[in-house]
Write a structure and sequence with these properties.
Strands 5-6-7-8-9-11-12 form a 7-stranded antiparallel β-sheet, with no helix packed on it. Strands 1, 2, 3, 4, 10 and 25 form a 6-stranded antiparallel β-sheet that branches. Strands 20, 21, 22, 23 and 24 form a 5-stranded antiparallel β-sheet that branches. It is 5% helix and 39% strand. It has one domain.
């Protein structure tokens, strides 16, 4: 698989647009935002909760789904490189090595109530029948590892029903009725469970008049753990991280929860560097971070599949570090290192030309030594309305 990636990248290397001569920008750009408008609110899509004792609440009127058999993951999983460099927003599958763009969303701002606007996501889900992405009406979408099924939140912004859809047939295998509204859903690493974060009101809001504003408290109420084959769902109350007290603290309305790498814990990041994340058992009780686990801002593991290397922070350029020695294994002329395609290549956010405008960017595949960069998508204006945001899925 590594050889296939290397050969593909060598073949395409001459076509890549690689930024150059910009090392002097690294320090002043490292902390600058690189995401679309409203991203300061949206980048915290997996932010965690305060470390307090939490109790399991009765599931309420949760109706179990019909028992279903999930399709098996492909074995062996595909590892080829799939690109759509002619389009800023992909029209066909984008994938490299271990990871694929299973879904993506675009952003738009719409008028809400009480002087607040909503920032709405429009989701696009991979369709293997056409090898393209299909616009959907769902409030949230997540594709399971293996790219065979997806989970969707049905509703307008928030929803009280989660569906599990077969990507090949486009038929729903199961519907899980919830007693509380969810605004986010995430598959477990083994692809058998769902984690759905619940909210009392929509968390992604901005003031209509554009005045700087911080929400006093997040409307998060807790989360559901759902066993997909049986449809059993249990709700756990979990208050949000406070916006002003702490540390740790978080002033974002959206405080979605995510899975640890082995699926034994749940977590979410804070707005401080230490700790970057707080962990909980599946029952919501505070837990110690798993040893050796490290995530980047995109929710992907920083550690290479073979455990030797670690992704460095955002920059221009970026760096990949040898974990044993702490030495720089390679420097890359990209904006962000996103996720490991294999032990020698990383999916990254690159910028056009000489990177005169860092907001003209797109996905690339870059080697650890930084010598080869291959465009996976075309370039978009990431600050414009309708800009897209990828969601990576293990293949």
């Amino acid at each position: 698989m590594t050889r296939l990636l290397r050969e593909t990248m060598e073949e395409w290397a001459g076509q890549a647009e690689v930024p150059h001569d910009l090392a002097d920008r690294a320090l002043r750009r490292r902390r600058r935002g690189l995401l679309p408008a409203g991203a300061a609110l949206l980048a915290a899509a997996v932010i965690a909760a305060v470390a307090v004792f939490v109790t399991v609440q009765p599931p309420g009127p949760v109706l179990p789904a019909v028992t279903v058999t999930l399709p098996p993951r492909p074995s062996p999983a595909p590892t080829d490189v799939r690109a759509d460099p002619d389009h800023g927003r992909p029209t066909k599958l984008v994938a490299a090595g271990n990871l694929a763009v299973g879904a993506y969303y675009t952003l738009r701002r719409e008028k809400g109530e009480n002087g607040l606007d909503h920032v709405r996501r429009t989701w696009h889900l991979y369709d293997p029948r056409t090898d393209s992405y299909e616009e959907t009406p769902w409030a949230w979408v997540d594709v399971a590892p293996g790219m065979r099924v997806a989970a969707v939140v049905q509703g307008d912004l928030l929803g009280d029903r989660i569906g599990v859809i077969d990507l090949d047939t486009r038929q729903f295998l199961s519907w899980i009725q919830l007693g509380r509204r969810a605004g986010h859903v995430a598959w477990s690493p083994d692809g058998t469970k769902l984690l759905a974060t619940t909210y009392s009101s929509y968390p992604d809001e901005l003031p209509t008049d554009g005045v700087a504003w911080r929400r006093k408290d997040s409307p998060r109420t807790g989360y559901y753990l759902i066993d997909v084959p049986t449809g059993r769902a249990e709700h756990h109350a979990l208050p949000p991280l406070p916006g002003t007290d702490g540390p740790p603290s978080n002033s974002n309305g959206r405080q979605d929860l995510g899975w640890s790498l082995d699926g034994s814990l749940i977590w979410g990041p804070t707005m401080i560097s230490s700790p970057e994340r707080v962990y909980y058992g599946l029952d919501g009780r505070p837990a110690e971070p798993p040893p050796g686990e490290a995530f980047n801002r995109h929710g992907e593991s920083k550690i290479s599949p073979d455990g030797r290397l670690e992704l460095g922070p955002d920059g221009l350029p970026t760096a990949i570090i040898e974990r044993r020695t702490g030495k720089v294994a390679g420097s890359q002329n990209v904006l962000q290192l996103i996720g490991w395609a294999d032990d020698e290549h990383v999916i990254a956010l690159g910028c056009a030309g000489g990177c005169e405008n860092e907001f003209r960017n797109g996905l690339v595949l870059v080697s650890v030594d930084g010598r080869t960069t291959v465009p996976l998508t075309g370039v978009q204006e990431s600050q414009e309305d309708g800009s897209w945001r990828w969601v990576l899925t293990p293949r």
